[in-house]
Amino acid sequence: MVEVLEYSLVVIVSTLFVGGSLATYQAYSRFESTVEDRAAFSSIVDVARQALANGSSYASIAVPDGSISCSAGALQFESSNEALTARLPASCAFFAEFSRGRHVFSFSSLALALSLAVS
Questions:
Q1: Percent helix / strand / coil, the chain, rounded to 5
Q2: What is the pTM assigned to this prediction?
Q3: 93 and 31 in contact (C-beta within 8 Å)?
Q4: pLDDT average, residue stretch 54-60
Q5: Is 87 a residue whose pLDDT tops 90?
Q6: How is the chain split into domains, by residue range?
Q7: Measured between alpha carbons, how far is 82 from 70 in angstroms, rounded to an integer?
Q8: Which label site among 6, 43, 47, 91 has the fewest CB atoms less than 10 Å from its CB?
Q9: Sheet containing 101-110: which strands, arranged edge to edge?
Q10: Average pLDDT, the chain
Q11: Is the pLDDT of residue 30 over 90?
Q12: Are 87 and 73 in contact (CB under 8 A)?
């Protein structure tokens, strides 16, 4: 009888440990995706601001599945995890969708009008 009780406790503790590990992994995965999205958006905003200062700028940036759009100076990045927005001191009107991976973002600026090409 004692062996059955010990075995039951081992099974219960093991199950709780596996469940806790799975929950921790899922939370970490969501956190990691959010950090990746914010890092990609920060890089895109930096390239856009460099283009406003220098006339043009480009960078190869690893991004998740998502899109980028700009309207009236509001640069918006959307992915499956979140939507991020940054204000730019320029007029703009563009939209681009991209798949997960590394893409080249080429911004150009003429008279404070920003344009984008993604390849």
A1: 45, 40, 15
A2: 0.77
A3: no
A4: 88
A5: yes
A6: 2-118
A7: 16
A8: 6
A9: 56-63, 101-110, 113-118, 91-98, 66-71, 74-79, 83-87
A10: 86
A11: no
A12: yes
